[in-house]
Each structure stands twice: as structure tokens, then as C-alpha cells.
Amino acid sequence: MKKNCDCLKKGHRVGLFLVALFVLCFLGYYVRPEQELHIKMLQMMFFGFSGMNVLSFILGAIQAFIWGYILSAIWCLTGCCCGCKDKCEK
């Protein structure tokens, strides 16, 4: 594979970025704790999220990292299969 098509490295980077966003979102709750909509959105996005506790934080961080790999895999598959064959080798 060429250097710009390494989907695992891309997935790792995107996953770490999404975990960083999740941490900022989680910490943002403590700036203004009376955000009911904030909790409802986190419950819709992450399975098992039950509130601002340690278990929900761990589950959300793991799921954010996994979503990074999923999004990267979709990006790589559509890029390699939809006319970018000069950039990707199988």
C-alpha cells in the first residue's frame, strides 16, 4: 500500500481526535452543569451513556475511538473504490 492509503493509521488518528472532542464535550458539561440537552445528545450518540459518571466516560471514549476507525474505513473504501485507483493499491 502507498503511504497515503494506510487506513489503520488514519483510523487511529481520527479515533484519537474524536476521543479528544468527547473529552472536551464531557468537561464542557462541568462549566455549565444545568444542560439537560447536552446529556440527552450524549445519550443518543453513545450506547450505555447514563449520565456524567466514570462508566459513561469510559464507554463514550471507547465508542468515539471505534467510530474513528469506522469512519476512516468508510472513507478509504469509497476513495479506493470510486475512481482513486492511482492513489490506492489493493
Properties at a glance:
3 helices, mainly alpha, 90 residues, 0% strand
Overview of the structural elements:
With 90 residues, this protein is mostly helical. It has a domain at 19-78. Helix content is 68%, strand content 0%. It is built from 3 helices and no strands. α1 (7-29) runs antiparallel to α3. The longest helix has 28 residues, at 54-81. It is elongated and about 45 Å long. 12% of the residues are buried. The model has no long low-confidence stretch (mean pLDDT 83).
**Low-confidence residue ranges:** none
| Helical proportion, percent range | 55-70%
How much is the radius of gyration in Å? 17 Å
Per DSSP, the total helix count is 3
Task: Describe the structure in brief.
This protein is 68% helix and 0% strand. With 90 residues, the protein is mostly helical.
Please give the structural blueprint.
Layout: H1 7-29, H2 36-45, H3 54-81
